[in-house]
Amino acid sequence: MDMGSELAYDYRVLKLGGSLITCKDLPRCVRLELLRKVSEEIKKFIDENPNEKIILLHGGGSFGHYEASIFDDSRTVRTSEAMQELNYMVTKQLLKSGINVISIPGKFYTFDIVLNALEKGLVPLIYGDIKFDASIISADDMSIDIAKKLNARLLFAIDKAGILGRDGRVISELRRIDEVGRLLQANYYDVTGGISSKIQKIFENNLNAMIFDGSKAGNIYLALKGYNIGTLVRGNPNA
Question: Given 35, 44, 86, 112, which residue has the most CB atoms within 10 angstroms?
């Protein structure tokens, strides 16, 4: 069902990559100045587009992915605590920028909860998490689920210009998963499969998604506005 059309709104699903908002080589470190700029760009879009709804998600970066990569008896509780800490800092900055954000832990995610938040005029902020059985719930997976159900524009803000080819240049559009194959490399701490898994899931779910550099000034705003500023993964060539 095209829930987006049914609810009479245009939607944007924006996932802030963990590698974007945290320090890549330093466990439990947030890029606070970048997070401030990202929040301001999101706020600008919201103010200018009152008839469009945003769903935000964020990954684990050097918080959740780092802790989840250490397999010991306290892995589950450490990872859960790390993600709560990161989410608190992201939520605090978004609120400071004037965004009516409401935090939703990934372990409790349902699509109905997201709809309920939207209906109350709130901006859902869902984060990647670890379940009680120690399995990881990826923010990528949740963002894809939401975008598919809402027929929404799907945006992945990462710390690179897009998907890079062998020559180091951004690939402007991907139409088949086999076009990238061996070009992709996962980050050291990324236990959810990295960029390769992200692209595969986009194709499997017949979605179109933009993967772009969220650290470049203005890019978050431009992506929300609909500009092609990175790599368009065209999993649905008919859309």
Answer: 86
User: Which strand ranges, in their side-by-side order, compose the sheet holding 173-174?
Assistant: 101-105, 123-127, 52-58, 10-16, 153-158, 208-213, 231-234, 173-174
Q: Quick one: how far is CA 197 from the chain centroid?
A: 14
H or E, element range at 52: strand 52-58
pTM for the full predicted model = 0.90
pLDDT at 4: 41
168, burial (CB in 10 Å: exposed 0-12, middle 13-18, buried 19+) = exposed
Report yes or no: 57 and 125 within 8 Å, Cβ to Cβ.
yes
All structural domains of the chain, each given as residue ranges with its CATH number in brackets, are 3-234 (3.40.1160.10)
CA distance 72 to 127: 23
CA angle 118, 123, 126 (to 5 degrees): 100
Per-residue confidence band for 183, with pLDDT thresholds at 50, 70 and 90: low
Distance, CA of 21 to chain centre: 11
CB 206 within 8 A of CB 236: yes
In this structure, the number of other CB atoms found within 10 A of the CB of residue 230 comes to 27
pLDDT tens-place string over residues 29-73? 999 999 999 999 999 999 999 999 999 999 999 999 889 999 999
Strand boundaries in 101-201, DSSP class E: 101-105, 123-127, 129-130, 136-137, 153-158, 173-174
Q: For residue 76, what are its two tokens? A: 């589950």
